[in-house]
Amino acid sequence: MSVATDLDLRPGQSVELLKELHILTREGKLNQDSRRKLKQVYHLHRFIEELLGDLPRHEGGPLVADHGAGKSYLGFILYDLTLRGQGSGQVWGIETRPELVARSQDLARRLGFERMHFLNIAAADAAHREDLPAQFDLVTALHACDTATDDAIAFGLQKDAQAMALVPCCQAEVAANLRQHKALALSRTPLAELWRHPLHTREVGSQLTNVLRCLYLEARGYQVTVTELVGWEHSMKNELILARRTGQRKRSAAERLRALLGEFGLQALEPVRFPGLPA
Ligand SMILES: C[S@@+](CC[C@H](N)C(=O)[O-])C[C@H]1O[C@@H](n2cnc3c(N)ncnc32)[C@H](O)[C@@H]1O
To answer: What region holds the Methyltransferase domain (predicted)?
Structure first.
């Protein structure tokens, strides 16, 4: 592939897969429209591989759930570059659009990627499905729409995930609450300027959402790092939240989370999005 080295073909990588995903043209050249996606997926794959490398190994593992899988670029690349060679591990793609699920199932079958599974369900329903394994090692969600990232976190907690790698999409729930209640406790302070204009409400809502998610993960026993996925020129939705389970629930994080919900008038979200906080 005659492209920048970070997008080069990896040893043993399936060219057929890349063509099927339209990352490569039929002639084997990089499809310029896919460049951005490929860069994001490769970066996330690198982080995921590192996370997986630190996890204790177990028979049949690692089990990975990818929420809001879309065309499953991430799942396929992870399987091809990491799990295929290991001869162990599964990827479960969770996606609400049936045609994308059918397409991924078909592609996995044709490529012989037999430890890839795709379910046509919402992320919120995945935790309660009996046809999914009881435990997962790692949960990912790359630009899963709106609250699907929150559902992925809830899934990870339910499934005792050792690690999570989340790149949130826009989330409208917190901004809608901000708009409705105008964060009354702060409305007479200069801080209210931060969400006076609708565009700022959306941005502050999005930022606040991710801050709350991080605190929640810490309060539920994860060590969290927040970083950029790729350079900002490649994506506006670029925040990567990596969580590793330590089992130590941070009470201070729970207190901060509750305090923030209180300040912004978002207390109603606690039972919905942040259940099981330490008292
Ligand atoms: C922006 S796309 C990202 C797809 C893929 N992760 C990627 O980065 O290429 C978001 C995907 O999430 C799916 N989705 C939206 N809400 C969902 C939900 N609640 N549960 C599962 N999938 C969902 C959409 O159908 C869409 O395919």
So the answer is: 36-176
